[in-house]
Amino acid sequence: MANKRKRWKLRSYLLSYDMNLIVAVIFLIVFGLIMIYSSSYYTASMSKAYNYDPTFLLKSQAKYSILGVAVMLVTANIDYHKWRYFAMIGLFGSAVLILLLLVPGLGVTVKGATRWIQVPGIGQFQVAEPVKVAMIVFSAALICKYAHSLGSWKVLLRVMAPTAVISLMILKISNNMSTAVIVFGISFLMVFMVHPKYYPFLLMGLAAAAVAAGVIYYTLHMPETDSDSPFRIARIVAWLKPYEYESDKAYQSLQGIYAIGSGGLMGKGLGNSIQKLRIPEPYNDMIFAIICEELGIFGAGLVILLFIYLLFRLYVIAQTAEDLFGRLLVIGVFSHVALQAVLNLMVVTRLFPTTGVTLPFFSSGGTAVVFLLIELGMVLNVEKWGRFKREQEYREQRL
Hints:
The protein contains 13 helices and 3 strands. The longest helix is centred in the last third of the chain and has 33 residues.
């Protein structure tokens, strides 16, 4: 009888959340773990850095995924309205975290980019991930404060300025343009979703398109790149002229395309990728190419459908949120997942220059999965409050 009561209690506890969202997240996590193992076991088994253990990266990612799910469920029980009181702390905390990258002994530099902090006794974590969460909360609180006057250019710039400053700090200090664009893009989309007018964003879009066109024109007509060329310009040149740099700057992206093309409809089978032996760190930002090679169009389509369903659930929750702050939190998480997934898929399929943006839930990275699951925990709490409000209104109508 006691066991039966415990089962009913657990069932009631789980059903108090949006199970559709939770199931989608669990599917993405499990699918991601399978692909991380499949794409990394050979590299890990041959590397001293991974103790010659083929399951090293799988165990590491699984550990962080379990931690992330636990933290997600804890966050789901925290009243999301309380996060608003920590908005300013999040902003200044983000600035401090980024500045800590400059401290000798704390900032960790890999391949010319300082993006990690070494915490004694814990290990490394990527600064950008907590910054994304903090800026979603801060942007939501700031937009709520100026919600009735966003139509003014002065107010619009005031709302966007803090995120722009944080994004520039990420760009200049950590040399991480892709994350800077994502952080700014999240805030941009949050404002766009609630702004009463579209023309300011149309003007900004046209300006961005003009800048992009100018950069492409410049790279197409510039002299031959050399070792002194800025690496971002070199990446764009390699994107536009891949076969001129197939053994150098375009090597990774071309190997990814070969992996996608060789997968066919159903793929070569799980674990049977050949290109993972050639692509540097195939378990990171190029993991979608390995999915295409091993599982074919079918597997790639399944990944895309899972992301579409996750984004659909986030959209539904945003539409039914209790208030503007809750809606903006969910829009921020929606924007984060959508921007990162779309950018990664565009890079892997060569629709965009190489950026280093990872694929949520699939690319290896403990910090990323933990903080993304924290965001989804906030979403679960927003959904719970919205559902309780609808149920209360329904009961009042019945009286």
